[in-house]
Amino acid sequence: MTATVNDQVRVPIAKDEPAPAAPKRRRKKAGAEEHGAPASFRLYVAIFIAATAFLIPIVWLILAALATPAQFSQGAEGLLNLSPTFSNFYEAVTRIDYGRFAMNSLLLSTIMSTLTTATSATVGFAFARLRGRGQKPLFTLLLATMMIPHIATLIPTYILFARMGLVGTYWPWVLWGLAGTPYLIFLFKQFFSAIPLDLEDAAIIDGCGWWRIYLRIFLPLARPVILTSFILSFVWAWADYLAPALLLTYDNTTLSVATASGYLDPRGNGLPTIQAAGALLYILPVVVIFLFAQKRFMGSAVSSGVKG
After folding, report:
1. Cα separation of 232 and 18, whole Å?
2. What DSSP letter does each residue of 16-59 carry, written as one string?
């Protein structure tokens, strides 16, 4: 019997399931895509303004060193429209015994920076790797001395050295170098604390003492910090004016004192253009040293501030 269309079993047709809706995309705020560009631009503008503010004194010093007294007396207009002259540098070198004073500064700065670096590294190693009673309070007291301004201890220091008969000699800088510097001690302590204990334990198992561990293992690893410490202490001694003016005579004084008091006319008035040339020659060695060593200098400053 033939089945009719009506007799056939009707198969229910499944309703079409709705297609999954596409995920809603969040609308970006107007200008969100360009958010990075304005931020970077603002950052560069801030850096440019800060760099300009720091460079203005250096630029003024260079222009004053290249100007004649007549152009310098005209102020900013004369400095911006000057015809450069290099006679000021010749006068700066010949009016005083520039070479002798420069050697005095070099000798004094080298002695102090070498002793300060060696002493600070040793004390920093002791605070970082050795353990003893009262270590933490002693280290806290050491850091607290960083808050005492140098000018507050200058007169008591002069009285002490005068009673010891050391005024007019370089022995005060030797003693300061042997005493170390709190900041540099902290710098070395942070760096040595970040070195893994495995190196120290392996050296102790091999029979090394603390001095051998310090000299053979830790000091070679601390070369960037040693360089940083030497540069900082060298700059401090090179740029110091108050201590040499107070403790040294004119014959063995440093270049900072000589440049501050040696460029005068017969009536005792300052010669600003020659003073500017002498100051530019005075800061030039330090700038050159920093430019050649800045990569290691910055790397050691970062590594010593992170404790592993």
Report:
1. 74
2. PPPPPPPPPPPPPPTTSTTSHHHHHHHHHHHHHHHHHHHHHHHH
Q: How many residues does the chain have?
A: 308
Between CA 261 and CA 207 the distance in angstroms is: 58
Residue 111: half-sphere exposure toward Cβ, Cα within 13 Å = 13
Cα distance between residue 295 and residue 302, in whole Å: 11
pLDDT in tens, 141-175: 998 988 888 888 888 999 999 999 999 999 999 99
- Cα distances from 267 to residues 262, 264, 271, 275, in angstroms, run 13, 8, 11, 16
CB of 184 within 8 A of CB of 233?
Answer: yes
Q: Is 176:109 a contact under the CB 8 Å cutoff?
A: no
Q: Cα separation of 216 and 209, whole Å?
A: 10
pTM of the full predicted structure? 0.75
